[in-house]
Amino acid sequence: MACSNGYRIASGLPKEQQYQEIRRGLDQYVKTYEGLDLVARMAAMNVYIKVSFPHVGFVGFYTCITRDSQKLLQIGPFQGHVFATGLIPWGKGVCGTAAEQGCT
């Protein structure tokens, strides 16, 4: 399936092919819009991935910040069926623990 801007949506394909199509589409998008800042690129990635995998409940980014000497994950651009937690302390919950351990 193709979007109105010509980018192909990778749905209905075997998972490995979906990942390859998503990568190609995102690479093309970033090349087309080289001047986009990080937040704009994250937002575009979220939409493309969410549309390609409509069954996934949350696609998004958290950025790492420090506030009052405490490390936190702060919500960035996201798509989903849930209202994401805005700030997550490192070491708390699944995402905070993954951040603290440096894994995904």
Summarize the structure.
This protein is of the alpha+beta class. The protein has 3 helices and 3 strands.
Write the layout of secondary structure elements.
Elements: H1 15-32, H2 38-52, E1 58-67, E2 70-80, E3 87-89, H3 93-101
Antiparallel strand pairs: 1-2, 2-3
Helix pairs in contact: 1-2
Largest sheet: 3 strands, antiparallel
| Amount of beta strand | 15-25%
- Provide the succession of SSEs: HHEEEH
The strand count comes to 3
Overall outline: globular
Describe what you observe in this structure.
The chain has 104 residues and is of the alpha+beta class. The chain folds into two domains: 1-55, no CATH class; 58-101, no CATH class. 40% of the residues lie in helices and 23% in strands. The chain contains three helices and three strands. Strands 1-2-3 form a three-stranded antiparallel beta sheet. A hairpin with a 2-residue loop joins strand 1 and strand 2. Helix 1 (15-32) runs antiparallel to helix 2 (38-52). The longest helix has 18 residues, at 15-32. The protein starts with 14 loop residues before the first helix and ends with a helix. The model has no long low-confidence stretch (mean pLDDT 88). InterPro entries: GAF-like_dom_sf.
